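Translate sequence into structure tokens.
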Amino acid sequence: WGLHGHWRGAALPGAGSLPLQFAQQAALAHAVYQPEQRHPVEVTAAQQDHLVQWLSRRLERPLTVPHLQAQGFDLVGGRLLPGGSGARAQFMYQNAAGQRITLYLGALEQAPTEAFHFYGDGAVSSFYWVERGFGYALSGELPRPALQALATAVYQQLQLSAAQPGGAHMPARGS
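Result follows.
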């Protein structure tokens, strides 16, 4: 009940599209973990190499952690979460004011390719996209333009990573 004020719109199983359900799960995971002070993540940023290897193995695809220092956010760490069609990863970032954002990602094999979409219900909003069977959602309690700018920065970094030889399988820009 304590999350009621943060999360009013939990979807019922089977309600809405797969990408929308994914965005709702991302927003809920953000609402659950972002207030934690002692245990916000399972693996801290100090162990980033281990974190990336572990989550890549569990999600069965190479992952890249976007760097958001230029946007004022530092990596706190990450965790493994369950999802509708398998494992999900969540990377958490925090700025100097203590605001947190989370990047939630995982396989969405039967979901269509989609460009950026906005999801907002209550205090937590998300920008989400799906490409080639993989979903991404950046969530936070930020104004929509600020969250969109961060999501764009994440997207661009994932694109650069995918373009490098041996880069992770990341999304191509949707229209």
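Note: Residues 144-163 form the longest helix (20 residues).
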